[in-house]
């Protein structure tokens, strides 16, 4: 059994390694495959029943994480990527599924109230080619 906290986001250190970003609460990875309708009526029997035919369109892969903002060097670098619109290589590991690596665009939202910890919501979208290594 895999634990949800083992779903991780790591940022490239620029030297070939990845450093874990500290996300304290919820994490998710969405793989969205756009569907393109390629249904065509019969040319010989235009009034016949249509059967839906689909093909894949654009694939998007997005990561999101929420929780208390932990002030680490890596989280400051992730924040700087968002603030400065820097595209950086990231790695997302989904236990029992595999590892996704590729460039990501990062967006962040910070929130808080007068008595609790500062909260951060991270949203990342993979851009360009990515590498997927299945778990063994």
Topology, please?
Layout: E1 8-12, E2 18-20, E3 27-37, E4 54-68, H1 73-84, E5 88-94, E6 98-111, E7 119-134
Antiparallel strand pairs: 1-2, 1-5, 3-4, 4-7, 5-6, 6-7
Describe the structure.
By secondary structure, the protein is mainly beta. Helix content is 9%, strand content 52%. The protein has one helix spanning 73-84; strands at residues 8-12, 18-20, 27-37, 54-68, 88-94, 98-111, 119-134. Strands 2-1-5-6-7-4-3 form a seven-stranded antiparallel beta sheet. The chain is elongated, with a radius of gyration of 20 Å.
Primary descriptors:
136 residues; mainly beta; Pnp Oxidase, Chain A; elongated
The sequence of SSEs as H and E is EEEEHEEE
First CA to last CA: what distance?
14 Å
Q: What is the highest CATH level, the class?
A: Mainly Beta
Q: Describe the biggest sheet?
A: 7 strands, antiparallel
Structural class: mainly beta
Helix fraction by DSSP (H/I, runs of at least 4): under 10%
* Order of strands across the main sheet: 2-1-5-6-7-4-3
């Amino acid at each position: 059994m895999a634990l949800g906290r083992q779903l991780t986001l790591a940022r490239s250190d620029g030297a070939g390694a990845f450093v874990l970003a500290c996300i304290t609460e919820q994490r998710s990875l969405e793989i969205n495959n756009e569907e393109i309708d390629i249904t065509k009526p019969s040319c010989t029997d235009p009034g016949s029943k249509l059967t839906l035919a689909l093909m894949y369109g654009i694939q998007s892969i997005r990561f999101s994480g929420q929780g208390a903002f932990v002030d680490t060097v890596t989280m400051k670098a992730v924040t700087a990527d968002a603030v400065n619109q820097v595209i950086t290589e990231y790695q997302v590991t989904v236990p029992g599924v595999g590892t996704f690596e590729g460039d990501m665009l990062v967006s962040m939202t910070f929130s808080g109230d007068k008595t609790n910890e500062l909260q951060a919501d991270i949203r990342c979208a993979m851009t360009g080619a990515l590498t997927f290594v299945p778990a063994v």
